From TrEMBL:
Protein species of origin: Drosophila melanogaster (Fruit fly)
Name this polypeptide is given: CG2532
Cited Pfam families: Ras
UniProt entry tagged with the keyword Disulfide bond: no
Transmembrane annotation, as ranges: none
Classification via InterPro entries: P-loop_NTPase (IPR027417), Small_GTP-bd (IPR005225), Small_GTPase (IPR001806), Small_GTPase_Rab (IPR050305)
Swiss-Prot/TrEMBL keywords: GTP-binding, Lipoprotein, Nucleotide-binding, Prenylation
Family: Belongs to the small GTPase superfamily. Rab family.
SMART domains documented for this protein: RAB, RAS, RHO
Molecular function GO terms recorded: GTP binding; GTPase activity
CDD domains: Rab
Amino acid sequence: MSQYDYLFKILVLGDIGVGKSCLLMRFSDNRFTEKHVCTVGMDFRVRNVELAGRMVMLQIWDTAGDERFKSLLPSYYRGAHGILLVYDITSSKSFRNIDGWLKEIRRMSSESVNVMLVGNKCDDLDNRQVRMEQGFNYANHRALGF
């Protein structure tokens, strides 16, 4: 008998340096580092959570945002139930690049995949370049979670 009732595969995508690995580290291990953590290729974490009395296993795939590793991504899209598309609120460039990531997602993943836009580094409000309303409106116009 399995240890979970449901299994979901989640991908974490976005430009290099937006904090994908830090998000995953915080969620899976409750750890945080201010140092840049460079993912080479892919990293994989598992976290079990209980929802409505059911055990859910989340397989979370942390992807390298570096252009050199983009060729690895297509095989990881297969079977994904959800995608966290991450940008850095202190980098308007990372927000502008969301369009390219979203095109890639639409091209490579199933139509049923759920995509959520995530603004990261919200603890650095003094350096904010992307307002919350911008992220919300972008997500809303493209039927993404936010």
